[in-house]
Automatic annotation (TrEMBL):
Pfam assignment, any one: PDDEXK_3
Name of the protein in question: GxxExxY protein
Organism of derivation: mine drainage metagenome
Length: 133
């Protein structure tokens, strides 16, 4: 997915509005609810706490809930911490593995400026990139 994907840019614009209005210091659920509201105001279809099943050898071995699924194609995982780390990136990549989605946005509202990492799944590979305001 190119960096200037209109849907991703619309999502990030909403995230920046939430960050500018609320600032840092709230729990993740506050940012989830605020971002879901902004995305819906922008005319986007949003599912909160979207359940994903993890399959292994033909059986379900786990169930996870991604914070937001936008337009049934972009996963969003929200954090409110000092900085995104390797464990957060691994979580997002695992969400991509567990679904047929190609993009997961990690959004960290725990800093003065929202921190963004875009995780993408290709045919056989995964890529990550920082995306800033």
């Amino acid at each position: 997915m190119p960096e200037n994907d209109p849907l991703t840019e619309k999502i990030l614009a909403c995230a920046y509005r939430v960050a500018n209005e609320l600032g840092a210091g709230f729990l993740e659920k506050v940012y989830e609810n605020a971002l879901a509201h902004e995305l819906r105001k922008a005319g986007l279809h949003v599912e909160q706490q979207h359940l994903m099943e993890v399959h292994y050898d033909g059986i379900i071995v786990g169930t996870y809930a991604v914070d937001l699924l936008v337009e049934r194609r972009i996963l969003i995982e929200l954090k409110a911490c000092k900085a995104l780390d390797d464990a957060h990136i691994a979580q997002g990549l695992n969400y991509l593995k567990a679904t047929s989605q190609a993009t997961c946005l990690l959004l960290n509202f725990g800093k003065a400026k929202v921190e963004v990492r875009r995780l993408m799944r290709g045919p056989q590979t995964f890529a990550t990139e920082r995306h800033g305001p």
